[in-house]
Design goal:
19 strands; Diaminopimelate Epimerase, Chain A, domain 1; alpha+beta; 39% strand
């Protein structure tokens, strides 16, 4: 058996404080790695996502994202962490606008050196109605049917990946949530591989606009994502489409408090013709570099 050593950077996105936000693994110069290598590394790292930085013929860089059990088309927090780390290392020195190739398409990404903030401009958000059993969904989240805010619809949102947005009346039920992720695929009949993202317009932080938790899809190999960029983009689009019914909003979205990983995503939504364009912004902090060994 031959072992291959891989250096993996560990960073936390949507926070400027260590021990908060959403952890991500980052592997630089990953062009020589096979799909199998990447999956093994992501499984060893064990975070919700590990990002692999590759060369691109269509953009400035290419990013691939792997959960412990499968590849993801897009990951907001791993993108924020990767771009922030590349900038801090001077590998994209002088760049303010970066094009990033992903499986979900080419994204425009900006970096504010003064704020050390990464902004991802997403493609227009798509919505799909949830037609499943709401009582089963509540039970799978570990809450009661009366905790849900039925004045707003439950919908799937796509902002790089599909997630089910579930309106909740108050913040209090979030601490009671105990997801049974394995049940999600059978309940989410229109989109069995989607994650589930309950949210509320009631917040813990006075200055914030939305509160959320994010529970992983049945097949992902993880339970919960501390702070979720793509779902926050979907929430911002939902906010101007279903809640306020306005053309533009800039929101502060809190997540991670129930896990002790308080994080903050800035999200902006703008109605364009028949769609809603969104961008998400956040900071990241580098934690450490580790060397992992995988079978070659």
């Amino acid at each position: 058996m031959v072992l291959k050593e891989i250096n993996v950077l560990y960073a936390e996105a949507f926070s400027a404080r260590a021990g908060k936000g959403n952890p991500a693994g980052i592997v630089l110069d990953a062009d020589a790695l096979s799909d199998d290598d990447m999956q093994k590394i992501a499984n060893l790292v064990g975070f919700n996502e590990t990002a692999f930085v590759l060369k691109s013929k269509a953009a400035d860089i290419r990013l691939r994202y792997f959960a412990p059990n499968h590849e993801m088309s897009m990951c907001g927090h791993a993108t924020v962490a990767s771009i922030a780390e590349l900038m801090s290392r001077g590998q994209m020195a002088g760049s303010k606008q970066i094009s990033v190739e992903t499986a979900a398409g080419i994204l425009d990404v900006a970096y504010d050196k003064r704020l050390r903030e990464v902004t991802i401009k997403h493609m227009p958000v798509a919505f799909l109605n949830f037609e499943g059993n709401v009582e089963d969904l509540a039970a799978a989240l570990g809450i009661g049917l009366d905790d849900m805010d039925r004045s707003y619809p439950i919908v799937y949102a796509h902002c790089g990946t599909w997630t089910l947005l579930v309106p909740i009346k108050r913040v209090e039920p979030f601490v009671r949530m105990k997801p049974d992720n394995k049940r999600f695929a059978g309940i989410l009949k229109e989109m069995p591989t989607a994650s589930v993202h309950p949210f509320s317009t009631e917040t813990i932080g006075f200055a914030n606009d939305l509160h959320g938790r994010h529970f992983s899809a049945s097949h992902s190999g993880t339970i919960e994502d501390p702070v979720t960029g793509t779902a926050s983009g979907g929430m911002a689009a939902y906010y101007i489409t279903y809640i306020k019914k306005i053309n533009h909003a800039a929101l502060a979205i809190e997540q991670g408090q129930e896990m002790g990983r308080d994080g903050l995503v800035k999200a902006e939504a703008l109605r364009i013709n028949d769609g809603v364009a969104v961008s998400i912004s956040g900071t990241a902090v580098f934690i450490e570099e580790r060397c992992l060994a995988i079978e070659n």
